[in-house]
Amino acid sequence: AKMAAAASELLTGWCLFGLALLAILIFCWVYVRKYQSRRESEVISTITAIFALAVALISSALLPVDIFLVSYMKNQNGTFKVWTSKNVNCFFKKSTCVERESLYSIILFCVFLWIPFVYFYYEEKEEDDGNTCSQVKTALRYTLGFITVCAVLLLIGAFVPLDIPNKKNSTEWEKVKLLFEEFGSSHGLTALSFSISSLTVIGMLAAITYTAYGMSALPLNLIKGTTSAAYERLENTEDIEEVEQHLLRIKSKCRDGRPLSSRDRRTVQQLEERLRTLRRRERHLESIEKSWWTKFCEAIRPLKIVWGVFFIIVALLFTVSLFLSNLDKALHSAGFDSGFIILGTNLTNPLNMLLPVLQTVFPLDYILITTIVMYFIFTSMAGIRNMGIWFFWIRLYKIRRGKTRPQALLFLCMILLLIVLHTSYMIYSLAPQYVMYGSQKYLVQVRCNTFLKKKKKILPCVSKMYYQCIVTRTYLFLHKFWFFSAAYYFGNWAFIAVFLIGLIVSCCKGKKSVIEGEVDEDDSDMSDDELSVYYR
């Protein structure tokens, strides 16, 4: 009967999950089709990008679902529910672990096999228009390097020593060890955890680069808006006239039959390229000025300003919460050798105060956690879109509406996959106690001063009562290796610094062009054929 009750409730959850999955797939299809180039689109790259983006969004739901499951196993009075017997408890833990391990295995498959193979296949296709067999062989040869890296990470993870150096706070580490013993110590799980943690470190670097900048650039762009298409078109017309007059002055030198000097020929060539770019800008600006989408954006301009102000407040709230959480670890954790792990909170932050209040009204706390996850994802998308894809100081690809190459879309989806992996630790840093225990409560007996009798009291779960509460699998997965936790700690400080720098830069920059990133000198005139898809 207990298992049947649990199964019926799980069935309802799976139905909701199916609807959410359908919505995710529709969003991924629309997003990929919006940015991919119509002239260079390929079926395999499109399917790969949609699948990878869907996996990233589904992975972002692991934390809210994990928190919901551990919270759902206890009543509000601090007692376990009737159906949460030992067998059912084990069933829940195993089922959540299987789902998590399956999803993480799919992420490893995408990052180390599928996406690299499709990427190198299209790189070879562009360089060599030979037979497909040679392209597949070359792509497999390059992909083999990624598979080797994955195998090395799994082997290291399976045999890496997990003993954490005991220093000054042995009682705290006894609690940590008990938690990890509950999590499991199989070599397969440890290998998977090490591989995912390695990717999470890369995702941390991507979050520092793109998410931190996106959190500042997205709201300020909404507030400042873009320049007027009519005003830009007037300036562009003046530039065209100026370039044409300059060309006429240079070409007038050879009216008597004398050839132009090499310097003048180079200048003419540069001016003609400049003129072609300006004329493409003219066509784009004319299309945008007449489009219904531009008129609609002008109508909802006040709403954009409101959203921009809201997003910048949220970004500042996150930054303050992250700073206080990191400061708490710096002051009260056991230090670097422990990965700056801290059980409980000594310095509270706004978000950690807000979530317990929302717990009183179901499901406001879960809605807030889901909103935070989606906020990080969309700010990451905005950061990648504004910055493009870089390798150190080399710009590899641009993300432009209707003109993004297949390889750039694959890079975009891989970066989002890695950022989503790091999002769980970011949220843990914002609300550590809530991520550990959710809305669980426990019963404690306190002595009454008047009658010297013991009285039961209901309190939120804290680290001191870890044996009465169930810890989320996400927390244990994140902190299985202390050296990764130490890297995340320093990454949070870097994230705060980049956000503040990006905020200053975004404030100093002027309004964006209405065709920002749509026209470049290396574009061909054929790219203007796609104007009708978006602007008419």
Structure report:
By secondary structure, the protein is mostly helical. Helix content is 71%, strand content 4%. The chain is built from 18 helices and four strands. Strand 3 and strand 4 form a beta hairpin. Residues 164-170 and 524-536 have low confidence and may be disordered. Residues 261-288 form a coiled coil.
Question: How would you sum up the major sheet?
Answer: 2 strands, antiparallel
Give the strand order of the largest sheet, numbering strands 1, 2, ... along the chain.
1-2
Low-confidence stretches: 164-170, 524-536
Radius of gyration: 28 Å
State the helical fraction. Answer: over 70%
Give the SSE string.
Answer: HHHHHHHHHHHHHEEHHEEHHH
What percent strand?
under 5%
The total strand number stands at 4
Give the overall shape.
globular
Given the helix and strand composition, which structural class is it?
mainly alpha
Number of helices: 18
Membrane topology: Multi-pass membrane protein
GO molecular function, one term: cobalamin binding
Organism: Eudyptes sclateri (Erect-crested penguin)
GO cellular component, one term: lysosomal membrane
List keywords for this structure.
536 residues; mainly alpha; two-stranded antiparallel sheet; 4 strands; 71% helix; globular; disordered C terminus
Topology:
Layout: H1 2-35, H2 43-59, H3 62-72, H4 86-127, H5 132-159, H6 170-183, H7 187-224, H8 229-251, H9 262-290, H10 292-299, H11 301-332, H12 350-358, H13 364-387, E1 389-391, E2 394-397, H14 406-430, H15 432-437, E3 441-447, E4 454-460, H16 473-478, H17 482-508, H18 531-535
Antiparallel strand pairs: 1-2, 3-4
